[in-house]
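Inputs:
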Amino acid sequence: LAKTTQPISMDSYEGQEVNITCSHNNIATNDYITWYQQFPSQGPRFIIQGYKTKVTNEVASLFIPADRKSSTLSLPRVSLSDTAVYYCLVGGVNTGFQKLVFGTGTRLLVSP
Amino acid sequence: DVKVTQSSRYLVKRTGEKVFLECVQDMDHENMFWYRQDPGLGLRLIYFSYDVKMKEKGDIPEGYSVSREKKERFSLILESASTNQTSMYLCASRPGDNNQPQHFGDGTRLSIL
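Outputs:
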């Protein structure tokens, strides 16, 4: 299973764009890349998922280069409520189930 | 909206007790998962189930067992609780389609005294 590496923490200010990059050098051909957000005392919440190029939803964008060995979660114009831990995961598709390996995540702190 | 419900938010038990953690999902998902989350270690997979009565060991199954008698319910059992099993336990579910994300409950914070 592909291991992911993310920065342990990041700081930002309200209104800024935040980009969190994740390394996954041994990603497999069939692996998807998924990002979750977690607030204290809550379970992780799905943010976005992609396979290649760029994916955008109402919350975030996900950029994946052609070699897929890294990915970048982009949060436009963050607010205080975006302070959370963000997890990047890669997981197999054609294994009959999707077993995901969580890393230690990136703790994002948004200040006024 | 997907709803994954864990029976207790906080639980305190004693060493040696048999502990049951319950998880119910309302979306007819085939796959269900149990994780524990500890500071500095992230989420670690204990067990998962891809169908009723089917189960697979995750990365840290020792000291745990699971039961899935109905599709919507997945139980985690601590056979004889120990203090090193004090942790946050998270349940998740997802459809059988392999590119669908997991949906998590809000967790059970279990303390073993």
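Remarks. The CA atoms of residues 40 and 87 of chain B lie 12 Å apart. Chain B has no helices and eleven strands.
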